[in-house]
Specification:
The structure holds two protein chains of two kinds. By secondary structure, chain A is mainly β. In chain A, about 10% of the residues lie in helices and about 50% in strands. Chain A has two domains: about 190 residues, Immunoglobulin-like, CATH 2.60.40; about 210 residues, tricorn interacting facor f3 domain (Immunoglobulin-like, Sandwich), CATH 2.60.40.1730. Chain A contains four helices and 31 strands. Chain A is globular, with a radius of gyration of 28 Å. The termini of chain A are far apart. Chain B contains 40 helices and eleven strands. In chain B, α10 runs antiparallel to α11 and α12 packs antiparallel against α27. The N and C termini of chain B lie far apart (about 120 Å). The chains are: A mainly beta, B mainly alpha. Chain A: It is found in: Endoplasmic reticulum membrane. Chain A: One of its GO terms (cellular component) is oligosaccharyltransferase complex. Chain A: Its main location: endoplasmic reticulum.
């Protein structure tokens, strides 16, 4: 039901935005600065905008435009309004929603940022926008041998795509190393160390676009989880059991030809530079009973460091992953229930747990979070800060009769910034906890009664 | 018991009976738990994982069964193995184990207990070892209850095999001793607090339970542990239980003459046939025993009932198992049973006729029948011999033949000989596996002869045969283990009987003067026993016909009762000096204690390693070598699903189960030629090997190499078997070419054939770069050929410790360059030729 209301709200918002579009030209961007961080496989872009209302009416929202190649790799867009001067800066998170614009050129995608207060005529506002792109670094050459390092392309525009007039703008690309094979030169553009600077460009018209390609070395681990299924099982007997099924792949340039262990072990620095064999998972504090295994048994290469604020599980897959190589594994752990399960004021209970993938610096193509509620729970509902596909399933576990309700949350293209708390509300009567012990007790009772009866009843026909 | 003794309910005797049976049930339960938990060392020290080689196949079959159901399972044609031949799994596998585990899994899952197939498989063996120890208990109970139990009973007057009854008398015994006060409090205390406490005290002073002892031994005999630790998911895990249980039911039928047990026996035999090829042991041992009984003049209708239904029903049921099928009547392994089947009928007929005819007439009839019968027999035997002789192996399978003739395998079938389980054991392995039992067994055999009964003669025969078989194949040590346990249990129990009886005699002798009341209770009990004995004598015949369930307890009792009268006479004859018996008792307990220590050690240290993961203890902690799974995981995730992987057959099952890739040969060594092909490829030079592998569609070649870390059972050490097996089929491979002066070596003295064969190259490719010298830690020598390149293979994966190396066949080369150029020239000329007309 909540989801429907949510969708309705989005529809209404879209509707409103359409009406707002007419006032698009009331805004102009006075100054824009874009810093794109290309140092890992996740592309992070920080956009600082100074927006001015040059129209006559107050404007409540503004649009962010993305080229069609980026819109499908866009994992997240966040916007903050900056108020105050240098030292007394305060950040106010703004509402960002995807939207459709019928008259958008070349299938550009849009996001609507709603201002905290409508921007009056002549007023300016400073915005900080963060957007994250996945799968946007294209390896070239596509296949490399063990001794080569990985080079990637990044496609973008030298100027910011925007429905508004931009008076002045600059774009910085930050590469992981100084090795940059080539970059498209749009004057003024220059490179200094790890940074490539495009701009400043003056007075660009709306929807201007100047494609650039940056070709550079990136040997950071391209760890892509193709599919992650996290199952969070709530047991009211005092623990939360989490089981995470990973299907990991190396998303970088494909490995070609020979894998030589000699080279890999003796010349580690130049051999297999783009490969990775160590991963780090950030687990909750007070975690216990951690295991790390795959289909064929335990994997013995892992270390766990527990702390007050978080636990870190450092582990290696069975073999180092080169481009295109895959591995599957399971991580499971248990955390105390009282840290994550609370009672809501309206007599319901809610689970407060972290969404997303615990592995650092990884992209998850498809994430499924299953929250297995205890048997007998009713009215489940999930609350998340972003939209996900929601579903309900039933799971039968130890001695269940009616089955346990499973809240399934499914989201594509998940990055570490999605690791935010979410809540699942449900009602549960503690009496259900006694169902299974009672069943066991009665089963044993009947066994003993039956054996008593068996011993005492004489079924012989013949007399003794 | 209660009915026979008919004490009014509520009397101390009835209380003791109830208490006794509860206590005995509890002890049985504890023993089961112990049998189960001693096998969990592998799970605790390593992990819950399937072990070794064959269990992986069984695990894979169980997975298939649980996923696809029983009908698919029977029809399963496995194309992942023996490429390109494939294998009909349903018809070539002993399904007992997989069906058992599959059923357990199904039951658990239908109760919504979501255990994985793997977990069920890992714990099947320990669970069944608990069952096996219970079966051993039952078997020993049967054996001693009818025979030697009497001797024990004479001393202690009360050692009757039904535990419940035994425990009553135990308590009576205790009361007869002057320790009554202490013991009563102890008993009361134990009811409230700990039953095990009294168990130990009973064991120390008055509790001679053959069955328990033998069970105690059997539940932890190392040679059995080795095959039944958690994770060792092999046929033997359930088969040993089935074997002992079949023997138990056979003895039970022999003792009772009940057709009900005979039928059960046939069903147990069917389960055994389902489970393990070793069922031929049963179907040969039981006829031998029947024959022995007939020859020694022990024929009885009970023997007939025990044997005839087993052969008829058992053979019919056995033929239902696809892997056995008509072999149940066609192969020589089963002939003995049919021969004895005929003999027992002849004997039965003779006895019958003897009963009808007068002695004189009988003599005439005998001479008549014997003279005709001999002629007929001679003809039949001649025909049979001719039939059997016409088949090349005389109707015997290779493994059976190597049992009859221990040198057979090494002469003719190198595949059977190459398996380490099929080698004859060494003396240390006897000591390792059965430890002190080896010394107790002879005593047990002696004990079985005093007096000899049908049942005890069976056990003697069983131990003799199993000692022989275990001497031929180390694997059959497994059959010896339960026999040794039973024998040692009997021996120990007899010894305990003698010593404790002496002690009791001395104690009661001294207590007579002290406490008259005690004496009264004991005499009271004795008289009560006598009375009940009289009653049971009357009811003996009717007791036999009673329903088997209730009869179980009852009819053993009458056999023991008469001895009560003679107990006082015998008691004096067997009394030993007090101090001597105390010391001997202590020594026996120490012996048992050492045995327990040895068993725990063996279970923990020697037999728990899963063999797919190795560990070594170094100064900086435990080091794990998990290379096998590393490379299997690599294969399963990073190669195409239909790629074929060639390796020596040892790794076939693991590759199909863990990596899910098609293999050329595996551990089910049914096709010698195919294995020889792989052996030939491994022992050929690179180019020839590439051609062989390419013709088999092989894409990857997997070799196991231990030279870097010193893992001795690698492919280089197995290589001579590959040469032998390959050479057996393809004569151009000659073992002599790989040996320098009869010595197998890989250093600079090695023959060029050896240094150029594929196995050498794949094992040592770029090995010299690890330490600069190429020092092989297994062979303890520098390798002969150090720097070489591979022309037809690419290294695609080598595991962390180099234990597994995987190579990919290079794709077929393009046509020879010269010709290609010519072709190009031709095409270009033809182009120009074409061009001209258009211009």
């Amino acid at each position: 039901m909540a989801a429907r209301i949510w969708i309705l709200a989005v529809v209404v918002a879209v509707f409103l935005s359409l009406s707002a579009f007419s006032s698009a030209q009331d805004l102009q961007i006075v100054n824009a600065e874009r810093r794109i961080d290309l140092s890992s496989q996740i592309v992070k872009a920080f956009l600082t905008l100074k927006v001015e209302n040059i129209g006559k009416d107050p404007v409540a929202e503004m649009l962010l435009a993305f080229p069609p190649t980026q819109i499908k790799h866009l994992a997240m867009v966040q916007a903050l309004a900056i108020t105050g001067k240098k030292k007394k800066k305060t950040y106010l998170p703004l509402d960002v929603k995807p939207s459709e614009q019928p008259d958008a050129p070349n299938d550009a995608g849009f996001f609507i940022v709603s201002f905290a207060t409508p921007l009056g005529p002549g007023e300016t506002v400073k915005l900080e926008v963060l957007y994250i792109l996945t799968h946007s670094l294209e390896p070239f050459p596509v296949e490399i041998t063990q001794s080569e390092s990985q080079l990637v392309y990044y496609h973008d525009s030298a100027v910011i795509l925007s429905p508004y007039h931009i008076k002045q703008q600059t774009t910085f690309f930050k590469t992981p190393s100084t090795r940059v094979e080539s970059f498209t030169s749009i004057e003024p553009a220059n490179r200094a160390g790890k940074e490539i600077k495009y701009g400043p460009y003056e007075d660009r018209t709306p929807y201007s676009y100047t494609p650039v390609i940056v070709h550079f070395e990136n040997n950071s681990p391209f760890a892509v989880v193709e599919e992650l299924v996290r199952e969070i099982e709530i047991s009211h007997w005092g623990s939360l059991q989490i089981t995470e099924n990973y299907r990991l792949t190396h998303g970088g340039a494909r490995h070609k030809g020979v894998f030589s262990r000699v080279d890999y072990q003796s010349r580690r620095s130049i051999s297999g530079a783009s490969s990775f064999n160590a991963l780090l998972a950030v687990l909750p504090p007070r975690v216990n009973s951690v295991y790390y295994r795959d289909d064929i048994g335990n994997i013995s290469t892992s270390h766990l460091r527990t702390g007050f604020r978080k636990s870190e599980l450092e582990f290696e897959p069975r073999y180092p992953l080169f481009g295109g190589w895959k591995a599957t594994f399971i991580i499971g752990y248990r955390v105390p229930l009282e840290d994550y399960l609370f009672e809501a004021p309206d007599d319901r209970r809610y689970l407060n747990f972290t969404f997303g993938c615990p592995l650092v610096e990884t992209i998850v193509n498809k994430l499924t979070v299953k929250v297995v509620l205890p048997e007998g729970s009713k009215d489940p509902s999930a609350v998340l800060p972003f939209t996900v596909n929601q579903d309900l399933q039933v799971k039968y576990s130890y001695l269940d009769i009616v089955g346990r309700t499973v809240v399934v949350l499914q989201k594509d293209n998940v990055v570490p910034t999605h690791n935010v708390p979410f809540q699942v509300y449900y009602t549960f009567k503690p009496i259900y906890m006694l169902a299974e012990p009672f069943m066991l007790v009665s089963a044993f009772f009947f066994v003993f009664v039956a054996s008593l009866a068996y011993v005492h009843i004489d079924l012989n026909i013949a007399k003794k | 018991m209660a009915a026979l003794e008919s004490p009014p309910p509520g009397t101390p005797s009835a209380m003791r009976h109830a208490f006794g049976s509860v206590l005995s049930a509890l002890i049985l339960l504890l023993i089961g738990v112990l049998a189960f938990s001693i096998r969990l060392f592998s799970v605790i020290k390593y992990e819950s994982v399937i072990h070794e080689f064959d269990p992986y196949f069984n695990y894979r079959v169980t997975q298939f069964l649980s996923k696809n159901g029983i009908y698919e399972f029977w029809n399963w044609f496995d194309d992942r193995t023996w490429y390109p031949l494939g294998r009909v799994i349903g018809g070539t596998v002993y399904p007992g184990l997989t069906l058992t585990a599959g059923t357990i899994w199904w039951v658990l899952n239908s109760l919504n207990i979501p255990l994985s197939v793997e977990t069920v498989c890992v714990f099947t063996a320990p669970v069944f070892s608990a069952f096996a120890s219970w079966a051993t208990y039952l078997l020993t109970k049967e054996v001693k209850g009818s025979g030697a139990g009497l001797a024990a009973a004479a001393l202690l007057a009360m050692v009757i095999c039904s535990i419940g009854i035994r425990l009553i008398f135990l308590l009576v015994n205790i009361m007869a001793m002057t320790l009554i006060g202490y013991w009563m409090s102890c008993t009361l205390f134990s009811i409230g607090v700990s039953f095990s406490g009294i168990f130990h005290k009973c064991l120390l002073i008055g509790f001679q339970n053959v069955s328990f002892l033998s069970k105690w031994l059997s539940l932890q005999v190392p040679s059995y542990i080795s095959r039944s630790v958690a994770g060792s998911y092999d046929n033997e895990a359930v088969a040993i239980f089935a074997l002992i249980f079949t023997f138990y039911l056979y003895i039970k039928t022999l003792n009772t003459g009940s057709l009900f047990y005979a039928t059960l026996n046939a069903i147990a035999y069917f389960y055994m046939v389902c489970s393990w090829g070793g069922y031929t042991f049963i179907i040969n041992l039981i006829p031998m025993h029947v024959l022995l009984c007939i020859v020694t003049g022990r024929y009885s209708p009970r023997l007939y009932i025990a044997y005839a239904p087993l052969v008829v029903l058992g053979t019919l049921l056995a033929a239902l198992v696809p892997v056995v099928g008509f072999n149940a009547v066609l192969t020589s392994e089963h002939f003995a049973s049919f021969l004895v089947f005929i003999i027992i009928h002849v004997i039965a007929l003779v006895y019958y006729i003897k009963g009808i005819l007068s002695p004189k007439m009988f003599k005439v009839a005998v001479t008549l029948v014997v003279s005709i019968g001999l002629v007929v027999c001679f003809i039949v035997v001649a025909v049979l011999v001719a039939l059997v002789a016409s088949s090349p192996t005389k109707g015997w399978s290779g493994r059976s033949l190597s049992l009859l003739d221990p040198t057979y395998a090494s002469k003719y079938i190198p595949i059977i000989a190459s398996v380490s389980e099929h080698q004859p054991p060494t003396w240390p392995s006897y000591f390792m596996d059965i430890n002190v039992l080896a010394f107790l067994v002879p005593a047990g055999i002696v004990a079985c002869f005093s007096p000899l009964s049908d049942a005890s003669s069976f056990v003697v025969l069983y131990i003799v045969m199993s000692v022989y078989f275990s001497g031929v194949m180390v694997r059959l040590m497994l059959v010896l283990a339960p026999a040794a346990c039973i024998m040692s249990g009997i021996a120990l129990s007899q010894a305990f009987d003698v010593f404790t009886a002496s002690i009791k005699y001395h104690l009661s002798g001294s207590s007579n003067s002290k406490d008259d009341a005690e004496d009264k209770t004991s005499t009271n009990n004795a008289s009560k026993d006598d009375g009940s004995a009289g009653k049971t004598d009357k009811g003996e015949e009717s007791a036999k016909e009673r329903s088997s369930r209730k009869g179980k307890k009852k009819e053993r009792e009458p056999a023991d009762k008469p001895s009560v009268k003679s107990k006082i006479v015998k008691k004096k004859a067997l009394v030993l000096p007090f101090e001597a018996s105390i010391v001997a008792l202590l020594l026996l307990i120490m012996l048992g204690a050492f045995y327990v220590i040895h068993c725990v050690w063996a279970a923990a240290e020697a037999y728990s390693a899963p063999s797919i993961v190795l560990t070594s203890q170094s100064r900086d902690g435990l080091h794990v070598f998990d290379d096998f799974r590393e490379s299997y995981a690599w294969l399963s995730h990073n190669t195409d699903v239909d790629d074929k992987v060639a390796s020596w057959w040892d790794y076939g099952y693991q590759t199909t189960a863990m990596a899910n890739r098609t293999v050329i040969v595996d551990n089910n060594t049914w096709n010698n030629t195919h294995i020889a092909t792989v052996g030939t490829a491994m022992s050929s030079p690179e180019k020839a090997a590439w051609e062989i592998f390419n013709s088999l569609d092989v894409k990857y070649v997997l070799v196991v190499f231990g030279g870097l870390i010193g893992y001795p059972s690698d492919d280089i050490n197995k290589f001579l078997w590959m040469v032998r097996i390959g050479g057996g089929v393809f004569p151009h491979i000659k073992e002599a070419d790989y040996l320098r002066d009869g010595q197998y070596r890989i250093d600079s003295e090695a023959t060029p054939t050896m240094l150029n064969c594929l196995m050498y190259k794949l094992s040592y490719y770029r090995f010299v770069e690890t330490d600069g010298k190429g020092f092989d830690r297994v062979r303890r020598t520098e390798i002969g050929k150090k720097n070489f390149k591979l022309t037809h293979f690419d290294e695609v994966f080598t595991s962390h410790h180099w234990m597994v190396r995987i190579y990919k066949l290079k794709p077929q080369k393009n046509r020879i360059r010269g010709r290609a150029k010519k072709l190009k020239l031709k095409t270009s000329s033809s182009k120009s030729a074409k061009k001209n007309p258009w211009i």
